[in-house]
Amino acid sequence: MTATASAPGQGELVPAPAQDSKADLIMTVPGFTPLVLSTTRPEPLDTRRVVLFEIDGTRYTIPFEIPMTVGLTYMAKVASGDPAEQVGATDYVLREVLGPDGYTALLGYKHLRREHFEQILAIVMRLVMGTLEPPKESANG
Known about the structure:
Blueprint: E1 14-15, E2 27-28, E3 49-55, E4 58-63, H1 68-79, H2 83-108, H3 114-128
Antiparallel strand pairs: 1-2, 3-4
């Protein structure tokens, strides 16, 4: 693969202004601002919850906003190459998202059918991986 030159502003990588001895290794992309994250002042997650399923009148909820670290951990477990980690990846996600009450309720529900489980798992995984937007709040609530 060879590098090609292009006019400034055409999406090519350009050297960042010198700040240290490794400045020649730091590149920026015109029109792109790096994401700045903080462990001391993180952006708060939405603490609201939404109902995922109900058993005998008891509603089991999941977070409205699931931390993307759950999805990242799932991907790392699947990609690890370790069969035990791969098998446990989905279980990890369900335990994290459903919490102990929801997870235990599903384990104890003797009438859980494949289509129920597949529906719950599909919704959870789409929320975890960011391919499903959290439900919109109703006009009433």
